[in-house]
Structure formats: structure tokens, C-alpha cells
Amino acid sequence: MAEKKDSAKKLKEKLLMQRKNAYHRISDKDLKACDKFCEGYKDFMNKAKIEREAVIYSIDLLKKKGFVEYKEGMKLKAGDKVYRNNRGKAVLAAIIGTSPITEGVRLCAAHIDSPRLDLKQNPLYEDTEMALFKTHYYGGIKKYQWTTIPLALHGVIIKSDGTSIPVNIGEDEKDPVFVVTDLLPHLAAAQMQKPMGKGITGEQLNIVIGSRPFKDDEESGSVKLAIMNILFEKYGITEADFISSELEAVPAFKAKDIGFDRSMIGAYGHDDKVCAYTALMATAECKKPKHTVVTVLTDKEETGSDGNTGLRSAYLEYFVADIAEALGSDARTVLSASECLSADVNAAYDPTFPEVNERNNSAYINHGVVVTKYTGARGKAGTSDASAEFTGRIRRLMDAKDVIWQTGELGKVDEGGGGTVAAYIANLNVDTIDLGVPVLSMHAPYEIVSKVDTYMAFKAFEVFMAD
Ligand code: MN
Ligand code: MN
């Protein structure tokens, strides 16, 4: 042939997909911004360990950025910024765009609940002169991971007169912490023979909270009484007030840089606060969007999204309806024209456990934000499976604006699987795709994300909201 052939190298570049670490592609400007951004993220992770605290943090920030609480019948115009607090456990924010609302909204959804140990309704008891709390785990956990780590207690107690008492103990350096015990190896011969899923049972996740009895009372139960007395002095509560409380035991660890190179962050609850924070920051920084931006930070994802603060509830639809009607349209028209980034974490390829992943379709640490076309289990059960057209649109958008991204699927086919809120939003006739940050040790008390991946999630939301 007379025609000169491309060298293999050139042809490779032209025809084959290159899998490249973000550090080989990121600009100096983005890298600097990334490190700064992640300092803010760590601060958020230390202040917002549970959904209620994430809502408080979010609303504080939104107010500072000019958002006002949406009131029934409020008139809205381009540039207006509003938010709605759903029962202190979920939050919605919107920025009205310059385009007609009938063109749909740019919706970003993430969840602010994370796996943890909830206290039971009647939690306090004494056994063998020790005081303990009974718990009921929340979300998918490997139970053995929750023993012998420092725990903090977060939440609220509603007293008999209706007063709400916020609780946050175990986070301050001077605070005590709480702990679930485990057997010493010397006496664990039988336990160690059990399969891992059965080594620690749900009813063994009891939290040690005290051991000092009343000095002048040799009655049995005086350790429990002494603890209740401390709680009465501190919070003004009696035992019956636990019935109307939501107390969540979460790891007392602080968010920290991981690695000599500080390239990663270890923290409790990256799933899914890493997407919640990045979506929140993009919303807070969003200036005069063309399309109306709606961001929802939801509760109850880890237990299946049911309940009035979860995304199977109508609260998102109602908020969109309120905005649509205030602008002379209706929810049906607006939702049908809308697009959504359903923001949740994905599993990062773990070199220590390669067997559960299929290399060509896994997400990798430092390869950018993950765009996941479908989730689900077995034959894609429970997924909304974004269309090729919408996936193509997101791909063009990310590439045009230098967002470093990768694709990913949660493990090998039939290895397990999982899903998130994408399907519930897609069910409202919204074009929806999953996008999020790859995580190592997902659902463990201490999870790991990479800083560049986190920053690229923020950038992805920014780009999507501005489009
Ligand atoms: Mn999640
Ligand atoms: Mn999860």
C-alpha cells in the first residue's frame, strides 16, 4: 500500500480508550483548588456526622449564600434562591433559572444518612453491675466492625413536655466515648469458628456506657440509676424520654488525611456525605443558572428510602410542584423535562480484594468521579438504567468542561450489587444517571475516598448546574 499507515501508538490513541490516573491529567489550578476544597470537606465531616447535623450545616451555609426559606405562595423569579427543611432530616434547595421552567430543572440528589447503631426505644439496662445501651443497627453493616471502636452519640430527645434536646457527646476531646465490646481471642475459640456474618450478632451490639454505682446504695440496679441521674442532670431527661428520641451511635473518629502523600481522606460516613457536600457546595456557589437548579439532600437511603424523609416520599415532587406552580407551570411538565444526577458513592477497586470486581468495569481511586449507567443486582434488578442518549449527553458535558471521570459498576455480575435513589427519581419521568465518588471500605466505620475524586464530583455538579 502506498498510503502511509498510522503507527500503532497513534492508532491506539485514536481508537482505544485510555484509562489514566487523574494526577496525569489534572491542571495545576484544579489540583490547588482540590486540596483547599477537601479541607472544607473534612470540617463538614467532623460537624455533620448524622442527617440532622448535615441539615443544620447545609441551611446555615445556604442562608449565608442568600437562600431564604420557601414559604407557601411565594412569588419566584430568575435568580431567586430558596430552600425547604423537611423535618430537620432532609433539605431541598433551588435556584431559579433564566430559562422557562417548562424546560425542566437540573436536579442533584444525595443522601445524608449513613450506616450506624441506633439506640432502641428502651435502651438503658444494667447487667452484672455495668450499664449498657441496646442498639438496633441502621443500614447495611458488617457487625464485627462496630465492636471495640470509640463511639459518639448524636441525635435528639423529645421530652414529655415536647422540648427537643439535641445530643452530641463523644466528639469533643474532653468528652467520654462509648464502646461495644468483643471477646478476647483467648476465649473466642467457638466465636472464631463461626462465619464472619455470625461472629457478632445484632443483639450483641450493646454499648458500654457506665459502671460506677451510687456509693450509698447497695441495691441492684444502682449503676443504671447513677447513669440515669447523670443524664437527668445533663439533659433533664428521665428514662421514659428515650421512647421519643432518635439517638445514633457513630464512630468518634475525626476525618483525617490518609497516606504519606495525604492524597486520600479517611472518615465516617463518606457514603454519602461526600456527594452531599460536593452537591451542596456546587449549589451554594451556583450563580445565575440557565435552568432552575434543585438539590435534595435526603434521609433514609440506607434503609431503602421509605418514610417521609426518604426519597420514596412525595416531598421532592411537592417541592418541584411548588416551584413549577409559582412559575406558572406544573410538576408533571417540569419533571418530564428535567435531568438528574443521582449522586451516590460507588465501590472503588480494592487491590486487597480484587476477586469481587471485574477490572474493565470497576471504578478506581484517583480516576475521577464515577458515572454509573446502571446499578442493581442480578439481572439489573432495581435499577433505572440511564439511556444511552442521556449517558452520551453527560459524557459530552463532562468532557467539554475538563471533569475527570470514569465509569464503574458495583462489583462483578452476580457478586452482589446495590442501588440508590436514582430509580425513585427516574420513576418521576426524569432522565437520571448515577454519579459519585469511589469509596474504599464502604459502610465500614472508617471509609476512604480520594481527594481528586471528591473534587471532581464537585466540578461535575458545578458543570451540570451551569449547563
Ligand atoms: Mn449511598
Ligand atoms: Mn450506602
Question: Would you give an account of this structure?
Answer:
The chain has helices at 8-15, 28-47, 51-64, 189-193, 196-199, 222-235, 270-285, 315-326, 331-336, 388-400, 422-426, 451-466; strands spanning 68-69, 81-86, 90-95, 105-111, 116-127, 130-138, 151-158, 164-169, 179-180, 207-210, 245-251, 256-258, 264-267, 292-298, 339-343, 346-347, 369-372, 376-377, 405-407, 417-418, 431-436, 438-439, 447-450. By secondary structure, the chain is an alpha/beta fold. The protein folds into two domains: 17-114 and 268-466, Aminopeptidase (3-Layer(aba) Sandwich), CATH 3.40.630; 116-251, Aminopeptidase i, Domain 2. The strands form five sheets. The chain has a nine-stranded mixed β-sheet with strand order 1-2-3-14-4-15-21-17-19, sandwiched between helices. The chain has a seven-stranded antiparallel β-sheet with strand order 8-7-11-5-6-10-9, covered by helices on one side. Strands 12-13-23 form a three-stranded antiparallel β-sheet. Residues 111, 271-272, 301, 344-345, 420 line the site of one manganese (II) ion. One manganese (II) ion is lined by residues 271, 302, 443.
Short description:
With 467 residues, the chain is α/β, with parallel strands linked by helices.
CATH topology of the largest domain, what is it called?
Aminopeptidase
What class, by secondary structure content? alpha/beta
Mass-distribution shape: globular
What is the end-to-end distance?
47 Å
Number of β-strand runs: 23
Distinct helical segment count:
12
The distinct ligands, each listed once, are:
manganese (II) ion
